[in-house]
Each structure stands twice: as C-alpha cells, then as structure tokens.
C-alpha cells in the first residue's frame, strides 16, 4: 500500500543554510533504502514536507521526524492511500525559493507570507502542484 | 479562509476621471497590506467591484466601502469561500472601457447598457471572466 | 431575464425576395432599440426564426409577429431562459441558402427538404448551430 | 410531440367571478376535443396558465388566447417538449385560492403578492407543483 | 431575485434579555413589510443571523444592521441567490438555547463553545438546519 | 478546522483489563478539555483508535500517543478534514468485543482475526461504522 | 444475448375477438419452446407487441410475424440488448383494455386514442410499464 | 423521427462481385427518394448493413430486405431513435475490404474472422466507426 | 486484499447426491482455515461456484479445484478485488434447487435451462444475488 | 465474449534467456490459432502475463499455464469482460527490461523491485499501460 503524507511544522530555532543541507543530506541517505520520495519546503521558520512510499516505512519515518527537536508542533495536512506517486523522481526535492513567482503565495493564501496553520490540506496540495509544474524544485 | 465578494452600487453624483483615480489610488495604497486584490468597473454612474482576500479583512473593508458616501444602494452580487484567487495580480485592477468589445454587454444583458441591478450574480461573473481574458483590465 | 425563442411558420403566400427584404429591414429597424437579436431562415414557404433578448420585449415582439398575416400556423420550437445570448452580433441575421452544404439538411431531417413541423426543438437547435459555425449567416 | 406551455398575463379589466367562470367553461368545452389539459390561476388581476397537449393544438390555442382582449402583456414562462403530461386529469383545473397556505407565496416570491413578471419559470413551476400536491386545484 | 445572507458579529457590550427582545421586536415590525424572513442566534456575545428575501431589501437592511453599534466586526458567512426560502414562516425566529442538545455544537465545532469566526459557511448552514429540524426555533 | 485521524498500533506487551482502563480513564480526563472525541478498539495485542477534533489539538495529542511506549509501530490508516464529527457523543468510546457479531470481522478481513496492517483505511472505516450502528460501543 | 423488441402494426382488416384469441393461442404454443416472452396490445385496429428472449429466436420469430398478412406496416419502436427480462412471467400476456384507466392514454399521447406511429419508443415503454404495474395484463 | 438500424445476415449462396454490385446499384436507386442513407459490408458470406432515415421508410425498406432471398437469418444488432445521422453522405456506402487494417477485426472479435452472430451491437458499432474514420468506405 | 471469484464448469460424469455432499463436506472442512467463503450451485451437469477470501488462498484453492477431474472446462465468469464479502456467513453454501422460483432462470437466460457458457458475468452475479435474497441457500 | 486476464507467478527455478525464448516461441506458435494476444514480463524470478481473447480459449490456455511447472503460486490480478482488446498487435509481446525507465517501478511500487504480490490489479494495469505507451514491448 502506497501513501502520501504532508505535514507542516515550525523550526524550533533559526536555521542556517548549513542546517537545512544537513537535513536534506540525511534524508537523501536514508530515503532510497526505504523507498521514500518527496519534497521539503523551508522558509521563514516554517517547514512543509511531502513524504511518499509504502505505508509502513512512511509511518516509521514520520514518527522519527515528529520527535526531531529541530522543529515543533507538526500538523498533518493530508494523508492518503495513493495508487501512484507524484514525486517518484526525488529522494527529497528541495523547493528553491528564488525560483518562486511571488504572486503564487498570494493566490492560495490570505497574505504574501505562507502560513500553513491557516490553510486547508487541499489548498496546500494545489500550491505544491504549481511548484512542481513551474520547475521550482531542486534535485539535490 | 479566502473569500471573493462582488457588489454593485450607484455613484451618488457624477464622477470625474480624477475622482475615480482617487478611489483607485486609495485602494492600491490600502489593499496590499490587507492582502486584498480585485477589480473595479465604473461606467455611467454604476460601480461593480470584486474583492478577494482573507474573510476578515474583506468584510472589514467592505463595511468601510458600504459607508462611503460617494455611492449608494450597494447590493451584493456574489460572495463565496474560494480555494484560490482569480485576480491575485491586481491590488485593484481597473476595467478599461475603451478596450471593451461593444457586443460583450449585449451578450449578457437585456440592452447595450449594463444594469447590474437586473442581472444575476452568475451572469456578472461570466462577464468579468471575459473582461479578464480579453485583456480589458489595466494594472495601475 | 434573457430568453431565447425559436418558432416556425408557413408563409401565407409565395414571397418575393423583395418581401423578405422588407421583413428583414423592418426587423433591423426595430430590434436594436428593444435589445433583440436573432436569425431568420426562409425557404420553400417555411420560416424559422430565433429571437433573443429580455423576456418582456421578446414576448411583446413575438405577439406582433404571430399576428402578422404574411405567415400562419406558427409553432414554438423552443423557449428558454438563458444566461448569455448566442447571436449577440446580429440584429436579425439571414440564413444564406446558397452557402448551405446540401447534406446538412439530410443530417438532421428525414428528407432533403426541411420540415420543422416534423422535427424536435433540439434537432433544430443543432442545425442552427451548424449554420452559424459554417458561416452561412449574412449580416445585413 | 407533447409540449407544456406556461404563461402569465394581466387582466385588462377587473374580472367578476362570472367572467372567470366563462373562461373556464369555454376552456372545458374546447380543450378535450383538442387533447389539451392544464391549470388556470387568477388573482389580483394576474393570470397564470399551464397548457399541455400536442405541439400543434397547443400553439394554435395559445395564438387565440394571446389575442383575447380580456388580458394583455402575456409572457411565456416555460415551454418544453415533454414525454408525459403532469395535469392529464384536468381539462382546465382552477386554482382555489381559499385552499392556499398563505406562506406558500412568500416561499417563492419576494413578497406575499405573486408577481410572475419578477419570477423565473423554474420558480413558478415549483410553486405549481406544490399547488397540485397540496390539493388546491378544483376539478370543474 | 431571492437571496439568503448569513453573517456573524460580536455584541459590542453585554446584552440583557431585554436588549435582545428589542432587536427582535424591531425586526418583526420591519421585516414583513419588506418581505424579509430569517433567524437570529445570540449567545455569549456572538450573533449569527440569517436574512432571506428580495435582493434589494435584504441588502438595504443588511447595510443598516452593519452600521448598528450594538455589534462589531460583522462577517458574511454565506450569500446566495436561492429559488425558494427555507425560513418563510419566521419574520425573525429566535434560537432558543435551552432547547439545544449540548452535543450539537461539538458536532460541528472544535469545542463546545460556538465560534463562527473559525467555522466555514457550509458548516454553519448545516448547524442551522439541525436547529430548525430539532424544533429549537421560537416563533415570537 | 475539524479532522478525523485513525491509526493502528501493536501493544508492546500483554495488557491487562486494568491497563486498558487506565488508558481510557486518562483519555476521558484529557479529551473533553481539548475538544477531542473518538473510539478505541483493543484486542489480541492490537489497538485501533479514531480521534476527532480541531486539527491542532488532534495532532498534539497524536504526537503524545505515538511516543507512548505501551504500543509500537503506529500506522496512520486515514486522516481527513471533516465538516462534522461522527463520534461527538464519546470522549473516548470503547469497543465492547463481547457484543461483536463474530462474522463481522470476516466480512472485511482475510481471516477471522483483525489485522489492520493488511487492511486499507476505507475497509476499516466501513467496519467501524458497523460497530457503531450495531451498538457495540460502550460509553464509559 | 437477451434482447427486447417492441413494434407496432395496423391490422389489415377488422379483427374479431376470436381472431385475436387465435393469435394469442398460437403465440402461447410457440413461444415457450423458443424461450420467448412478452405482451400483446390490440385495439382499434392497432397492434403493439413486446417480444423478449434470445437474440436469434426473437429475430426469427419477428421475421415470421412481419410477413403475417393479418397486419401491415410494422414499425420497430425499440430494440435493445438487455441483461434481464421484464415480462418473464408471460409467454404472451394480453393487455385487458377494460382494466385501463382512461386517463392513462392521455398522459402519454396527444389525444385519448393511442397512435403509436406518432409516439417515440421511450414514451411507449413508459406506458407499457404503467400497464404492468397497474395490473392490466391478463395471463392467458 | 430519425432511426438507425443495423443488422447482419448470411448470404444464401456464394455471391459474385457482380451480384454485390446489383444490390448496391439497386440501393442507390431507391434510397435517395426515401431519404435512406447507410453502409453495406460483405465478406465471406456475411452481410452487415446500417440503414438510417425516417422511422417509417427505414422499417418499410427493412421489411423488403428481410424477405429478399439472397440472404437468410437476419438479426437486428441495434435500432435507435437518433437526433442526427452519422452516414448522411452515403446513399449506400460500401466497405472496401482491401483498405482494412487486418488487426482491426481481431481488436473487436474473438478471431480474425468477423462473426456478427457472436458480437454485441455495441462492439459492431465501434468497429463501424473505425471503418469510417480510417477511410475504408467507398462512395459508389 | 480480498477477492471474489466466480467460475462455471461441467461435471465430467453424472454426479449422485452423495458425490455432491462429498465436495461440500470437503469444502467446509478446508475453507474456514483458509478464510474462504462462498456458494456452490449444481444442476444438470453444470457447476457454478463463488469463492471469496484473501487473494492468495483463493488462487491457491482455485488452482486445486481447476485440476479436480470431477469437472472440466472451467471458465472464469468474474474476478474482482472487493472491499467486503457478500457471503461471509457460508463456508460453502449450497443452492437448494427445490426452493428456486422456476421463472427466475428465464429472467436472466435465453431458456429455462441455465447455460453459464452463454451468459455474461454480470448477469450471473445478478442471478446469484436473487438466490441469496430469496432464501434459496442452504447452510450445511 | 472477449476477456482480459492478468496474473503473476514465481519461476520455480532460475530461468536462462533460452528458457524464456522457449516459452515465448511456444506462445507465438499456439496463440494465433486460438485468437489469443498479450504481453509477458519476466524479471528476477517473477512473471506477469496479460492474456486477451475469447472467454473459452483464454480459460483453456490459462488452465494449461497454471499447471506448467516452470512457475508456482500464480495469482489472478485482474479478469474482465472487455469490448475491445488493448494488445491486438502482439501474439505474445515481451517486455524489454533494458528499455524501462528505472523510475517507473518506483512510481507504482513500494520499492524499486516489482512485487506483484503486494500490488493491486489496478496499479499493475496502470504500469502495463505505461510500458506499452513508452515503447518497451518487443514484437518477437
Ligand atoms: C523538517 C525535517 C525533515 C526531515 N526529513 C527527513 C527525511 O525525509 N528522511 C530522513 O531520513 N530524515 C529526515 N529528517 C531527519 C529525521 O528527523 C531524523 O533525524 C532522522 O530520520 C534520523 O534518522 P536515523 O536516526 O535513522 O539516522 C528530517 C528532519 C526534519 C527536521
Ligand atoms: C466604489 C468604491 C470602491 C472602493 N474600493 C476600495 C478598495 O478596494 N480599497 C480601499 O481601501 N478603499 C476603497 N474605497 C474607498 C473606501 O470607501 C474608503 O474611502 C477607504 O476604505 C477609507 O479607508 P481609510 O479610512 O482606512 O483611509 C472604495 C470606494 C468606492 C466608492
Ligand atoms: C417571419 C417574420 C419575422 C419577423 N421578424 C420581425 C422581427 O424580428 N422584428 C420586427 O420588428 N418585426 C418582425 N416582423 C414583422 C412583424 O410581424 C411586424 O410587422 C412588425 O413587428 C410590426 O411592427 P410595428 O407595427 O411596431 O411597426 C416579422 C414578420 C415576419 C412575417
Ligand atoms: C386567461 C385566459 C385563458 C383561456 N384559456 C383557454 C383555454 O384553455 N381553452 C380555450 O379554448 N379558450 C381559452 N380562453 C379563451 C380564448 O382566449 C378564446 O376566447 C377561445 O379560445 C375562443 O375560442 P373559439 O373562438 O374557437 O370559440 C382563455 C382566455 C383567457 C383570457
Ligand atoms: C444583531 C442585530 C440584528 C438585527 N436584525 C434586524 C432585522 O432583522 N430587521 C430589522 O429591521 N432590524 C434589525 N436590526 C436593527 C437594525 O440594526 C436597525 O436598528 C434597524 O434596522 C433600524 O431600522 P430603522 O432605522 O428603519 O427603524 C438588528 C440589529 C442587530 C444588532
Ligand atoms: C492506545 C493508546 C491510546 C491513547 N489514547 C489517548 C487519548 O485519547 N487521550 C489521551 O489524553 N491520552 C491517550 N493515551 C495516553 C497517551 O499516550 C499519553 O499517555 C497521555 O496523552 C499523556 O498525557 P499527559 O502527559 O498530558 O498526561 C493513549 C495511549 C495509548 C497507548
Ligand atoms: C400481431 C401478431 C402477433 C403475433 N405474435 C406471435 C408470437 O408472439 N408468437 C408466435 O409464434 N406467433 C405470433 N404471431 C403469429 C405469426 O405471425 C405466425 O403466424 C406464426 O409465427 C406462424 O408460426 P408457424 O408458421 O411456425 O406455425 C403473431 C401474429 C400477429 C398478427
Ligand atoms: C444485403 C442486402 C441489402 C440490401 N439493401 C438495400 C437497400 O439499402 N436499399 C434497397 O432499396 N434495396 C436493398 N436491397 C434489395 C432489397 O432486398 C430489395 O430487392 C429491394 O428493396 C427491392 O425493391 P423494389 O421491389 O422496390 O424494387 C438489399 C438486398 C440485400 C440482399
Ligand atoms: C465443483 C467443485 C468445487 C469444489 N470446491 C471446493 C472448495 O470450495 N474448497 C475445497 O477445499 N475444495 C473444493 N473442491 C475440492 C477440490 O477440487 C479438491 O478436491 C480439494 O481442494 C482437495 O484438497 P486437498 O487435496 O487439500 O485435500 C471442489 C471440487 C469441485 C469439483
Ligand atoms: C509464464 C508462462 C507463460 C506461458 N504463456 C503461454 C502462452 O501465452 N501460450 C501458450 O500456448 N503457452 C504458454 N506457456 C506454456 C504453457 O504453460 C504450456 O507449456 C503450453 O500451453 C503447452 O501447450 P501444449 O501442451 O498445447 O503444447 C506459458 C508458460 C509459462 C511458464
């Protein structure tokens, strides 16, 4: 059974680019062996992550991530059984904020600043689809 | 929660181009801070305006606009919770009447003169969609 | 409220091209002021006419037309409240029979001769849509 | 081909109960031979009538009724090809206003007084369906 | 054109039962003449009101209500063109809080205390439908 | 925003009835204050739990539950934004296994023994709906 | 493959009750062996018959019936592949005209006299369904 | 009323090309006057024919064809009331077997040899649509 | 994953009631341990069997059954992944032919004798549903 | 009746390219005469095969294949009555693993290694459709 899980969380402290690279490197080390793929967004102290893969490994990894003290207050945004992955090409793709069309956040949010805690799962899914199709994801 | 609100009103007196520019300038000053976007149509003493944004700021602004004595008899045409904005690119776009195909008004109305008080919200929405797609909106 | 009305009738006597031009000229004089648009087909002693516009003026004009003794036995084919006109560009367009693909009538009718008294309103609507899209309507 | 036609009109002068009985008697004399069935509403100077039957006889009769000078300004409310009648049991049923639940008019109208000139055909159809199902029709 | 408008607001000060009766009495005086019907909920400093009727009178009344300083921060919850009223029987019905099943609020809300500012229009509509069908509305 | 979350897990050791009562008592102490409602199933070393409530408190509580060492390997079965709760009446209802029709498990599972790790979220939801409607839930 | 075939025809001469009994007796002799079931209507010189069964035997029998000189001008009304019969209980049921509600014909036809040559297959199907459900079919 | 009728039959004896030309010539002589259009397939002793036109002439012609002793065992494949013809351009088009893609028969049939007696009407319709769109029909 | 498999076969020789009881007894011995449930029909030398359960055990058992020389020419009628069983109550229910309404077979078949080799899977499914709901299944 | 059957199995021993060619050669010898078409996948000890054709020959061939001791534990993945074949062009096409995009397996599976025993029939169907459309099938 394949699933897709999307959550948001708040960084527990200011993250340097180096800190973020650490998380991504670690993810790209672990995920292929577990058949996990996905995307990671980080900006202004907020993470949004998509995890896809078998139901058991995604849950096991999510449990680890939830306990990671580099962030707090994770909230699930969506979780579904899926029949095919959407991000099969990324062991953990990174959203490149410099490639973002600035109007895109306003299209889905109440202000120019993304606040996943005020958005429904469906709206975040629509935003992520536009990120992928507009080429804003970096492979490694 | 994002909403879209469309209303019509009657100017309480003849408006000069200058008067209209004042309203638009004011709107473009206020709206970005409140995350509000939209369109304004003015012709022959009739206003039609679309306001998009967070539910609270749109309602607060609409309350101010309703009390503005430059127009009377505002009537709501449509009001909906939306999952994405349609006019995210305009802090307050202006419909340029010189770019209008004259047959367009006849397509949706009983005569060549637009009378929003006799039209349903759905027909006005269709008309506004044609305005945008035919390039009749001015940015600033 | 916008409506579209389609009817058919039989000319009460043989019509000359001049007679037909009189009807069209009269229609193009009256209809713009009343916000009425439409099409007129005449062939072999049969009229089919589409009238679009506000509900009241279309009914008022139809009452006059029904009483016109140049034709008899008018039958309504369709009548609907519509949200947009289909023939907004013609104050009264004329179907040019020389531009008709001869197979078109057979496509919708039992024989090559159009007999609206044996056809449903839906089939006549489909035929008229093909007339417009194949450029068989003359503007004036 | 069966059709159902609904129209409204304004009595050209105050009608006495006797006048109304004359119209109904005449209708019940003519309609059976032509296969026409339907309902008639009269109140406060406004008629609403439903006519069902073959397409030709309904149109022929409607042409006569439109020219009757006991009323003016008839407007078609709906006209459809139908696959079965709804009022097959009444050669011309009369709406008994004393059996009307007074709230019924408010349910579909803007005020307690029925004004068909401001109502869509669909709303009038819904109102007539409630009249039949609440037993407000008199047989003869 | 009939519309239904639902809004919520916060009382600007503590309201006594007498204050509430004043608002209701006033509403029942005005609304019948304007063809307005609806419901009013008041509890814990929060109003929720449904207004149904013609588009023009509902908008005119809503403009007055918005400017009433007995409450602040009105937000529209839903606004629709409707083909029939749902509350035709109440010139302004009052929700009787003593007849409320206490679990009802939890069914639609995040806690036992109703907070319309955190609820979508659709959820409030569902709640109001249950209020009516469970007999929690008082007539006068 | 209301959500419903369903997960399964394996007890890390044999649980006595007393152990289970401890979990339930604790749940019924905490959940009302957080607006959380739901059901708990325990049998043969397997837990299945439904949690309903506001998105933030459900996620916060789920994070605590996942870290509880009385069980391991929690897997999310379903997670959805909902517009109304299904179990508003239970701060934490307990499935009474003695009231279970023994054929019920076979209806949805491959064998008579429930193994949520081999079942889709949709099938578990259907099973839980039958539990509620067949009266197999104990209130406290 | 099961099919259902409905046709109408005109008796070539006046039929006595005896003539009709002959046709029915013959049908009830032949049809069971071929797995054919159905209904026969006769009135005023018009036959309507429904034949159900395997595609080959129904076609073979229909070919014989078409060539029977007791009737002329057979026209197919409907013909469909079906997944179950509707008249499995009648080797050839007869419509008993004395049990017919006289309004039934008017409900589907333009006049009180059934004329299948002017009716669509769908309307005749609806009429036959009412015949069966109103108990107007005789078994033998 | 327009109908489309498709049937299959078996040639009662080996047909020469000349025999087939006779049938086609005869068809092209008769059909235009009756407003009939269609297609004829002949191969390996099997005919499949589509006839379109008014309900009465199609039935009259089909009765003649069924009685023609050049073929036996005709079975109806489909018969429908249609709102437009599909083969309006052919008084009787002939399927040119040399233009057939040999895989086409396998796509719809159990073997490479077309056996309409084992195929449903819907599959034959799909096959004929591919014949037309792949240009395998000869005009005369 | 649960599946439902339906097949038909021909008994390779005349079966005595004793032979049939042997098959059923054997089935009821094996099936519970493998979580298999279903129905068996036997009449006139034809078997039809429904098998429900986990995908692996159903396939394993079907492989054994196919090789059983008490029958030949098994053909699969339907095979689906299901979300719930329909025959959870029968380890292998037997269709009691004496409780069968004789018209039932005619309803779905071309003749009174059931020939699954000429029926689609969907029609057999409909027949089996009627068998269950009409109480024609014996438990053991 | 056409059907499509998909199954998976495990090779009972390591297969050499020669062994595989034997199976394919044998298939291409037998299948055309029986009207069977399809695809065969072999990798890492796992077979997946699609068989299309008449219901009887596909079942007869599948019975033979199931008993072939070059593989074990065949499980049906899907089986359907179809109205047209998808692989009419291949008497038995072979999936060329060297032409496979390596990400394709991850898109539908939990890991990079295809395990049909853990996948639903629908997901395997989607994977095979991508194989065909990406040109990964070899003809002979
Ligand atoms: C926002 C965020 C996202 C993370 N994503 C992943 C991930 O996709 N894969 C992963 O293995 N670790 C991820 N981690 C790191 C995990 O929290 C944890 O450190 C890691 O799974 C530890 O794995 P290990 O103990 O097995 O080495 C993430 C951490 C954070 C803060
Ligand atoms: C037709 C019309 C449209 C208006 N639109 C806007 C608007 O989009 N945004 C805005 O800030 N003010 C708009 N205004 C002006 C407001 O009515 C009001 O003057 C303004 O909100 C005052 O804001 P302030 O008191 O906060 O400066 C509009 C006025 C009119 C007459
Ligand atoms: C077939 C037919 C179509 C007509 N169409 C129109 C029309 O579209 N508009 C119009 O004004 N008159 C039309 N007429 C003419 C009217 O019947 C009538 O002569 C005219 O409305 C008279 O208008 P007046 O008395 O206001 O001048 C038509 C007449 C015929 C016979
Ligand atoms: C509101 C109204 C409704 C009428 N309905 C009918 C009717 O249903 N049938 C009818 O024959 N006449 C009806 N009439 C009367 C006709 O207008 C007209 O007088 C009648 O058809 C004359 O028929 P005759 O000239 O054939 O006698 C109605 C008249 C009015 C004012
Ligand atoms: C929550 C609330 C609801 C109200 N509802 C109504 C109402 O339904 N109808 C009404 O006439 N006035 C209502 N009012 C009172 C209006 O705000 C206002 O006082 C009234 O329309 C004044 O009308 P008048 O100036 O025409 O007398 C309401 C006031 C409040 C605070
Ligand atoms: C299967 C299971 C279900 C539980 N469900 C709940 C629950 O619904 N609510 C709750 O407060 N604690 C629940 N708990 C207990 C929590 O894991 C944890 O002990 C508790 O939330 C501690 O809360 P506290 O530290 O705030 O006292 C559950 C534990 C288990 C093992
Ligand atoms: C209106 C009509 C309906 C008939 N229906 C049937 C029928 O259902 N079955 C039948 O066997 N014959 C029916 N017949 C009789 C056939 O036309 C024909 O006489 C009969 O099939 C001769 O069969 P035989 O030559 O095999 O004896 C019908 C005849 C008519 C005129
Ligand atoms: C397979 C087949 C198809 C035929 N198609 C037609 C046709 O489309 N039109 C036609 O008039 N005759 C067609 N015929 C010939 C008729 O069976 C019959 O000979 C012809 O309608 C005689 O018409 P007539 O007696 O009016 O001259 C066809 C014959 C066969 C065997
Ligand atoms: C028509 C038919 C249906 C059968 N159904 C079952 C069945 O449902 N379960 C079963 O175990 N055996 C069934 N059998 C018997 C099997 O073919 C086979 O004899 C049995 O599975 C042998 O099992 P064993 O070798 O494991 O004892 C059936 C046999 C026939 C002929
Ligand atoms: C994975 C697999 C797929 C096969 N596919 C086919 C096939 O498509 N057609 C075929 O005739 N034999 C196929 N075979 C071979 C059959 O199992 C069997 O050997 C063959 O049908 C024997 O046929 P025969 O005894 O009629 O010669 C396949 C074998 C295997 C192991």
Automatic annotation (TrEMBL), chains A, B, C, D, E, F, G, H, I, J:
It comes from the Bacteria. InterPro entries: Acylphosphatase-like_dom_sf, BLUF_domain. It comes from Roseateles amylovorans. Residues 2-93 form the BLUF domain. This is BLUF domain-containing protein.
